[in-house]
Amino acid sequence: MVASSLKLQELIQEIREAKTQAQEREVIQKECAHIRASFRDGDPLHSHRQLAKLLYAHMLGYPAHFGQMECLKLIASPRFTDKRVGYLGAMLLLDERQDAHLLITNSIKNDLSQGIEAVQGLALCTLSTMGSAEMCRDLAPEVEKLLLQPSAYVRKKAVLTAVHMIRKVPELSDIFLPPCAQLLHERHHGILLGTVTLITELCERSPAALKHFRKVVPQLVHTLRTLVMTGCSTEHSVSGVSDPFLQVQILRLLRILGRNHEESSETMNDLLAQVATNTDASRNAGSAVLFETVLTIMDIRSAAGLRVLAVNILGRFLLNSDRNIRYVALTSLLKLVQSDHSAVQRHRPTVVECLREPDASLSRRALELSLALVNSSNVRTMTQELQGFLESCPPDLRADCASGILLAAERFAPTKRWHIDTILRVLTTAGTYVRDDAVANLIQLIGGAQELHAYSVRRLYSALAEDISQQPLVQVAAWCIGEYGDLLLEGTCEETEPLQVGPALGVHRGGTCEGRQGRPQGHSLCPPPLRKVEEDVVLALLERVLQSHMSLPATRGYALTALMKLSTRLHGDNNRICQVMSIYGSCQDVELQQRAVEYNALFRKYDHLRAAVLEKMPLVERGGPQVNEAAKESKEVAQLSEAAPVPTETQVRGPGYPWGKSMVQLPYPALTLLPSLQASKLLDLLDLLDGPSENAQHPPPLDPTPGDTLIHLLDLPCTPLPSAPIPNLKVFEREGLQLTLSFVRPPGTPTLLLITVTATNTSGGDVTHFICQVAVPKSFQLQLQAPSGDTVPAQGGLPMTQLLRILNPNKAPLRLKLRLTYDHFGQSVQEIFEVNNLPVETWQ
Predict the structure, then answer these.
(1) What confidence score (pLDDT) does residue 350 get?
(2) Where would I find the H helices in 570-706?
(3) Least confident of 39-43, 62-66, 445-449, 679-683
(4) Of 149, 368, 417, 455, which has fewest CB within 10 angstroms of its CB?
(5) DSSP string, 104-123
(6) How many CB atoms are located within 10 Å of the residue 738 CB?
């Protein structure tokens, strides 16, 4: 049976000649049967040949597990031909998951003790490939002895094996500390490269080793300076760069040794300057050395001039024709923009040019860096460039670009007029891609700029007349027309400041519009000419929005409410508006139907209240996201009680924005006025709708005692507020992303705890795809509400919140386990941590 077996070359030829997969499988199965029979018969002369054929079949993907024990036999054989194939089989067929790998420990130990270099090399290669933690502990003394053997071949393999051992068993670092100092004086490049790698692993895993090897910084500096200044043999030169692999590894080690250490950083400053100025960046090898030099300069305590030099190197990388190098440069500059903002600003024109890259990954990185470079001094220029990019960028980048422009405008807007124009242009260009809070922010901005009401409503009316497909723009326009329609009909628009958004917007002075791109008068991006608008035209435009198939239910709601508001702004007959309300009183959409029925009731039964109910909405200042102290809560509740007029007539659901609120009007958006405990009471305040009584009187004034003011205003049973608030707890912080927990225990349900998770981001890049998962012990019941979004905006933008409801019937100490997953600066991050220091007030 063995005699009919094929040789390895013949087996390879037959497999290659197979026409189909079935023929190949037949050849393999037939030969595997011969191999099994040979192993079973115990043929010592041909077993290594049979195993070689089996390894070839294994490389093709066929099962070869039955050859594992044969590998052990061949390794124990005294013949070198058997050992060579046996060790190769062990590296391919054995791993830590199989107990059989422990059986070769003694064989490897014996071979390492022999004086035959080839056999020692085979044993070291196998140990560094599949050695488990147990094997590394048993064989570490033998490897330590081989580190100082005369043979350079054995020393090099021993160093690589030591690297594997340190990665598997970090506590073995003490064994390899003494030999490393001697090996640094080696002139053999392979041994020196392995030694530097070994020291790097030791320093990353052991603080004692890091302190120990800071003494060898001068030796490393001398070695690297020799490579850079004098060069080496052509054998180790790559594209004219002396051994770039060794240079890169030394630079990585210097970065670790110089981090947070003034003396070591000072020692290597001059060397880093020499490497940065004497390395040719025209080839990939030189670019790799320069990039590693930049990383080292930025990570140690280097001089300010050296950091500027590093940023300039990255700026030169942006001009490289290789896209990979440009991508690396953009990513590195994005990380440096916070610490070296002024140095990175010098390369802003080059970064902006990268926005036009056809490669999606490059343009995305350039967009992130461009947004991070925006400040108060360049906001006009940068916004103009970004708006130009927004018009032509790929759809998958439009949301990020639009959000970035809006955030930059909110932070650095020089004037309110400029801010409004910028947001309007973004909504006109990419309205469907903006964040959910863009509509609310613009309405808040317009409402707070009283001198720009006439200008804003005319701009929005003109934009709406040309395009009703951009839903956020339509919603803002409908709100403004409803609130300030009288200004639109008057045809007055005072210019308070020049319009400077970009060349595409033109200049508006004295009712003329001169667009640099030839836009006609009346274009949505140009201020409309000052002429009076007819009432019927405005009503027809809002009816068109109501009837459009592109309008969302929320958009129709804005238009319906705007029509209702115009009933008090217009001077003509309101029959047309009444007809629209009657039509939508039978609408299939429940919200629209409810609003229309309420508005009809306002026309028919309470017409004497209509003017008061539909008056212009007062401005409410936006509350900060972190207002959680009880004193601030009581103060805001008292102010709200004094400012909100108590209705004296029968009340219906009124046209305040957003939907479903009462006639106690608040400007849309519904901004955060009170923290979680007061939110439900605020909704009660907004729903004072019950009980028809035309002669109702104002309630008598009450003493605004803490916790009672809002309750007395609502004429509801008094429920005292908690005497002392539970302090907030910051549980996570990394690269600008912070996670804070705020707690509320409803007085009526002492076993219930409400936790608001607030994520804020002070870094220069948005945190996207943010997911927060929470686990509690089995004795608790947890319910996670939907988060407010999955993006945490950069530069301290609107925070993301999520509510947790935890039921603790046993009042046991509370522990939380959180898992955060998100994308930040182009990297996917996952963090798992436990919170066991919650305040005792959360569970006692």
Answers:
(1) 92
(2) 575-584, 590-604, 607-613, 630-643, 676-685
(3) 679-683
(4) 149
(5) GHHHHHHHHHSS-HHHHHHH
(6) 16
d(CA 551, CA 587): 15
3-state SS assignment for residue 816: strand
Please, which pLDDT band fits residue 328 given cuts at 50, 70 and 90? very high
Query: Which region holds residue 735: left if phi is over 0, alpha if psi is between -120 and 50, else beta?
Result: left
Spatial neighbors of 313 by CB under 8 A, at least 6 apart, are 276, 281, 290, 291, 293, 294
Cα-Cα-Cα-Cα dihedral sign, residues 732, 738, 739, 742:
positive
In angstroms, what CA-CA distances link 108 with 49, 77, 88, 161? 22, 12, 13, 13
- For residue 23, report the phi and psi dihedrals to the nearest 5 degrees: -65, -40
The amino acid present at 642, given as its one-letter code, is E
Beta-bridge mates of residue 507? 514
Q: What's the average model confidence in pLDDT over 728-751?
A: 88
Sign of CA dihedral 452, 454, 457, 459: negative
* Pair 748, 733: CB distance under 8 Å: no
pLDDT at 685 > cutoff 70: no
Query: How big is the chain, counted in residues?
Result: 844
pLDDT over 90 (residue 195): yes
- Contacts within 8 Å (CB) and 24+ apart, 63-70: 64/93, 65/93, 66/36, 66/39, 67/35, 67/39, 67/93, 68/93, 68/94, 68/98, 68/100, 69/100, 70/39
CA contacts within 13 A on the Cβ side of 536: 0
Query: For residues 564 and 581, is the Cβ–Cβ distance under 8 A?
Result: yes
Phi first, then psi, for residue 604 (nearest 5°) are: -85, -45
State whether residue 677 is helix, strand or coil.
helix
Examine residue 141 and say whether the peptide bond preceding it is cis (omega within 30 degrees of 0): no
Q: Which CATH architecture has domain 729-842?
A: Sandwich (2.60)
Structure tokens, 75: 């390794």
722 in helix, strand or coil? Answer: coil
Q: 629 vs 47, 515, 633, 723, 811, CA distance in Å?
A: 80, 51, 6, 12, 25
pLDDT higher than threshold 60 for residue 717: no
Separation between Cα atoms, residue 541 and residue 68, nearest integer Å: 81
Q: How far apart are the first and last CA of the chain?
A: 80
Q: Write the pLDDT tens digit of every residue in 132-179.
A: 888 899 999 999 999 988 889 999 999 999 999 999 999 988 889 888
| pLDDT value of residue 218 | 92
**Predicted TM-score of the model (pTM):** 0.64
Q: Which residue has the higher pLDDT, 4 or 293?
A: 293
CA-to-CA distance for 195 and 186, rounded, in angstroms? 9
DSSP 256-273: HHHTT-HHHHHHHHHHHH
732 forms beta bridges with 739
* Tokens of residue 404, six digits: 């970035």
